Amino acid sequence: MIPIFQRKSVLIPLSLGLLLILIALNLAMGSVNIPIAEVVDIVTGKGSSNVIWENILLRTRLPQTIVALGAGMALGVAGLLMQTLFRNPLAGPSVLGISSGSSLGVGFVLLVAGQVWGFSFSRLGIWGDLAIITASLGGAFAVLALILFISHKIGGTLSVLIIGVMIGYLSNSVVGVLKFYSMEEDVHNYVIWGLGSFSRMSVDRAYLFAMITIVPSLLALFLSKSLNLMALGDRYASNLGLKIKRARLLIILCAGTLTAVVTAFCGPIIFIGMAVPHLAKLVSRTSNHLYLICNACILGAATALLCNLLARLPGMESELPINSVTAFIGAPVVISVIWKKRKENF
C-alpha cells in the first residue's frame, strides 16, 4: 500500500500530465485537425506553412484553451470554498446568488436597451461586449457586497446561505419579467449569453482573463488553514482561535470574485464548480485544503478543457453550448455523491 505522502506526490504530477494532454488536444482537434508538430511550431512562434491552420489556432483555439483553463480553475476553487464554508456537498459557486446578480445586470443591458432605446448592444461589436461585461460585473459585485454586509451583520453561516439563495430567486424573477416585455431578438441574445461559452475573447483578452482568474485561485491557498478549521465546525474552529467572521468574509470574497469574473466573461457556467470539488476529494483522499485546492485548480482546468473539447468534436461544423456539455459531465458526479451519501446513511 502506497504511503499517503507518496500518493500525493505522485498524483499531482499525474494530474498535471493529464492537463497538458488536454491542452494539446484542445489546440489540435476540432472541425479541422492540426498535427501536434504544427501546433508546437505555431505556439512557439516558429509559424507554419499552412496559413489557415495558423489562423485557426491563434485566433480561435488558443484563446478558447486559455479561457477554459482559467475558468475551470476559478470555478473549481470557488466551488470547493463554498462546499467547505456551508458544509454542503451540493453547494456551488452560484449558491449565494452572485451568478444570478450577474445575469440580472446583463438582463438590464440586453433586455431593457431594446425597449428603452430601440437598439441591441449585441450589434455594437466590442463596445457591446464591454457593456455586457461591465453590467455583469456590476450585478455580481452588487450582490457580493450585499452578501458580505449580511455576513458581517448577521454572522450565521446558514442565514447567509438562505439569504443568498433568496437573492438568487429575486434576481431570476426580475429577469423573467424583463424577458416577458422584451423584443424577441433581445431575448434570443440573452439566452445565447446564458448558455455559456469559452470562445468570446481574443488572445489579448484571454491572457487578461487568465491572469485575473488563475492568480486569485492560487491565492486561495492562503485560506487553507482557515478552511481546515471551518470544516470541523464553527464552534470548534472558534475554540482553536479562528476568527469566524473574518474567515467567512475572506472565503466569500474570494469565491464571489472568482464566480463574478467567470460569469462576466463566459456566462453562467454550471456544474463545474459543483462537481470538481468532489473529484478533488476523491483523488486527494485527504481533508487538508492545501492539497484539495491544488487538485481543485488542476482538475477544474482539466474538466473545463474536456468540456470545451467535447463541445467541438471533430467533424462538427458548429459548437455545442458549453453548459450542455458541463451538465453531461457534472450531473453524474453530483448524482453519485447523493447515492454514496444515501448508502452511508443505511
From TrEMBL:
Gene Ontology CC annotation, any one: plasma membrane
Segments crossing the lipid bilayer: 62-82, 94-118, 130-151, 158-181, 206-228, 249-277, 289-311, 320-339
Protein name per the record: Iron ABC transporter
Family the entry assigns: Belongs to the binding-protein-dependent transport system permease family. FecCD subfamily.
UniProt entry tagged with the keyword Membrane: yes
Cell location: Cell membrane
Keywords: Cell membrane, Membrane, Transmembrane, Transmembrane helix, Transport
The organism's place on the tree of life at top rank: Bacteria
CDD domains: TM_ABC_iron-siderophores_like
Organism: Labilibaculum manganireducens
InterPro entries in alphabetical order: ABC_BtuC-like, ABC_transptr_permease_BtuC
Gene3D superfamilies linked to this entry: ABC transporter involved in vitamin B12 uptake, BtuC
Record GO terms (molecular function): transmembrane transporter activity
Coiled-coil intervals: none
Membrane topology: Multi-pass membrane protein
SUPFAM superfamilies with a match to the protein in the record: ABC transporter involved in vitamin B12 uptake, BtuC
Main location: membrane
One GO term (biological process): siderophore-iron import into cell
